[in-house]
Amino acid sequence: MQTILSIKNLTKTYGEDFTALNDVSLEIRKGEIFALLGPNGAGKTTLISTICGIVNPSGGTVTVDGHDIITNYRAARAMIGLVPQELTTDSFETVWDTVSFTRGLFGKKRDNALVSKILKDLSLYDKKDNKIMTLSGGMKRRVLIAKALSHEPRILFLDEPTAGVDVELRKDMWAVVRGLQQSGVTIILTTHYIEEAEEMADRVGIISKGEIILVEDKATLMAKLGKKHLTLELCEKLETVPDTLKGYDLSLSDDGFSLVYQYDSTGKTTGITGLLDKLKGENIAFRDLSTGQRSLEDIFVGLVKGGEG
Predict the structure, then answer these.
(1) Burial per residue of 92-117, b for 16 or more beta-carbon CB atoms within 10 angstroms, e otherwise
(2) Would residue 280 count as lying in a domain?
(3) What H or E segment, with its residue span, contains residue 218?
(4) Comparing C-alpha atoms, which of 110, 299, 126, 106 is closest to residue 205?
(5) Which of 160, 196, 230, 273 has the fewest CB neighbours in a 10 Å radius?
(6) 150 CB-contact burial (10 Å; exposed 0-12 / middle 13-18 / buried 19+)
(7) Do 183 and 108 sit in the same domain of this protein?
(8) Residues in the chain with pLDDT values less than 50
(9) In the chain, how many domains are there?
(10) What pLDDT digit, counting tens, does each position of 56-100 carry?
(11) What CATH number is attached to the domain comprising 99?
């Protein structure tokens, strides 16, 4: 797949003793949704700000569709739309005026039809004559997206796009993002909501302490690191796991009525058959069983802590 954003050996230091970005290299594919995950202070916003020309890099290179962000800044920046975390909007302007004005800042000719389409796609058209100060937080965030799309960028950065947005509106925003991807826009989002990345992303990158520690296709990541678990609902309370079962990765629920077995679904055998035989031998009966898979959140936490869980 064609690369639209190339980051090579990017560093950003402040003073002599703080490194915000440490030798970051990353290739973003055209048309994908890429989720960048990381704890607070990991370097997510610094990375985005550097790519968008808000922060000057200390070293390395960034090219946007072949345009260097330093030597060919205007061409590179014209390719990018940015939706920041903060709700920075022109409170006393109308929705229509602020979106149209932002388009003009990039040297684009007036295009009422395009602005109308953007507002309609974001369910903002009926608010086009409202002053931004009268809108809800969720609507203000939609206005930020409309502004970012006004100059027809090919890459859209969404920095915590649904922060402070209720669950229903968050899912609505996910639908908007999918629609943008279908129209050919490459989406790069940072998020604290792991389910957002799990739901939306084609690939996932994890940044910690200014370094990219993993980049992987989401499906591959889940298959590789997402261990499955078997939950057994017991007929009778179990006080402790018998010694004969110590060789299995078992955990007993606090109430003693559930056993959870962790296993690797990619291995030659799961060990489930042997476990069930052992349970039968111990006269431990169960009324129900179910399987599930470790979530992306579990994987993320494990990696940031320095292991793969």
Answers:
(1) ebbbbbbbbebbeeeeeeeeeebbee
(2) yes
(3) helix 218-225
(4) 299
(5) 273
(6) buried
(7) yes
(8) 307-309
(9) 2
(10) 999 999 999 999 999 999 999 999 999 887 776 678 899 999 999
(11) 3.40.50.300
